[in-house]
Amino acid sequence: MSAFNKKISKKTFLISSAVILAIVSFLRFGVGADYFSYEYLYNELDVKSIGSMLDSLVFIEFGFRALMYISKIVGLSYHTFASIISIAIVILTLAWINDNSENYQLSTLLFYTLFYFVWAISALRQGLALILAMYLLFNNKYFFKMYQKVLILLACASLHVSVLILLPIILLRDYTPSKKTLMILFGISLVITFIPFGSILGALSSIPYIGKLTHYLEGSGRGFLDFPGIVRILFFIGIWLHYDKLIESKNKSIRDLTLLSLYSFIIYFVFKFSELMAARFSVFGYFSVIIIFPSIVMLYEKRQLRMMGMAGLMTFSSLSLYKEMKTVIDQSGFRGGLVELNKNTILNADRGKFFNQYNLIAQRIELCKANEKEFFGKFESDAIPYADKNNLGDHFQSVFFPDTNMYGIINDKGEIVERGIYRYRPEIYGDIVVEETEGTSFKRFVLKNIRTGEYVPEDQLSATIDNFTEETKMRTKWIDFDHYTYEQMKGSLFAELIPEEDILTSSIGKYGSPFFYEIVEVTAYTQTMYIYLDDYYNPLNNSIYYSITPYGSNFIAIGKTSCSSEYINRNGDIIWIEKEQK
């Protein structure tokens, strides 16, 4: 690459690479296995106070929650936050390459083809922890005392706890094992891959703490002859063959990264009973290859051998990039080709192209937020009509009025009958409203006829409830959800959000009272959802609910969405919305 070096300087190359990758990081939308899951976490984080942030998402490391907290406090969108983290990872990686690589072009190529799409734009938490630890602890530019290194590791662990795997490696930094010792350890790790640790831990899942590990198990005793395993074996052998020259390098970071990489490949095969755990624990050494392999190429003084090495790395990088792009499409749940994915940027984002559980959650939140905005816009502008006093309506429902912080009554058209006058939610039995009040030493019930405004004697409460219950018994029959049912719903939001092939289980409850309608219960991805259908399998509205109630005798049902409770009349109209009371 000498001719290339004469045309463009190192500084210009790295800055240009940073700018290009930063633009990609900002424009991408939905790319990566974790894009939508981090969006979900970002939206779920409670930022009312520092205390609420500490109590929120406790399974996420504090440092990353703190970054999200600051971002939300200053009003950044999730995409902007994710883009900033991604760009920071890119800049730190290229700065690390600048400080340590003996061939910055090859190192940049390896970073882009092997790591960018996973560790820079998808796995943001571990990606940021990874590059911070590598940049500070494995860099010719910095020298820290042992206690400072431990503090740096702890700080990085606040972003992702996996960086603590580096602690024993740092403590053993001055120990240089022989090639024979490393090969013996590597051979033992390969043998360990045949031990069925997954099955053993699965059998012990009832034991505290061990049970938590089973979440990460994907198999057991399956050996090492798969694509990820073969790649790491080849990497280990390539580094091991050049071990003596690498650890004697004047570039101290090359020695440290060589040991880190070899140790990490050994760790990978020890934990290979869970591909997820193995990848997370060994990524630090795997990441080191973007510095090590260009250094190996530069060890060869003969131009022909060096060019062969470069050609080999470039060929491997091309194959790796192709594999990474296919993996990105699969993990993102994108229905379309690579060209379509590249066009689906933040400037032209189409969520409907992505089918995965967290995107589905985001779409459902968008829908319920839109419904909330429309309803509360009408409420705050007093655009919700009052019922005619001479024609209050056929059926009634008690609802919460946010302006008075009390409960009132609406009819099945969504018209206001009584506006926020009850301290507690009253029960309604036909035309009778029953309000619970506190007496001097016991609870009292006040009964009132909604239409006439006349009070009913309290001793008639039991008879009122019994008569009402007897008249409103529901008839229910559950049947199977079939392909014909799904075809009937084509064109609805439900069919747009959930492809039939992604439905795991489903059933339909047919109701015959107070009118004929259906409730569909569907499990897709890891979510159970409900929708209301009329008797011809047409969705009554476009809402998808986490939980629902059947229609009562007042011809009103209640469905809980991701952000509120919606009151629905028999036509599917959302006549009232209540936010969750905290």
From TrEMBL:
Task: Say which domain of life the source belongs to.
Answer: Bacteria
Q: Which InterPro entries match?
A: EpsG-like (IPR049458)
Q: Which UniProt keywords apply?
A: Membrane, Transmembrane, Transmembrane helix
Statement: the UniProt record of this protein carries the keyword Transmembrane: yes
Q: Where are the transmembrane segments?
A: 12-31, 76-97, 109-138, 150-172, 184-211, 223-241, 253-271, 283-300
List the residue ranges forming a coiled coil, or say none. Answer: none
Which protein, by its recorded name, is this? EpsG family protein
Source organism per UniProt: Erysipelothrix inopinata
Organism lineage string: Bacteria, Bacillati, Bacillota, Erysipelotrichia, Erysipelotrichales
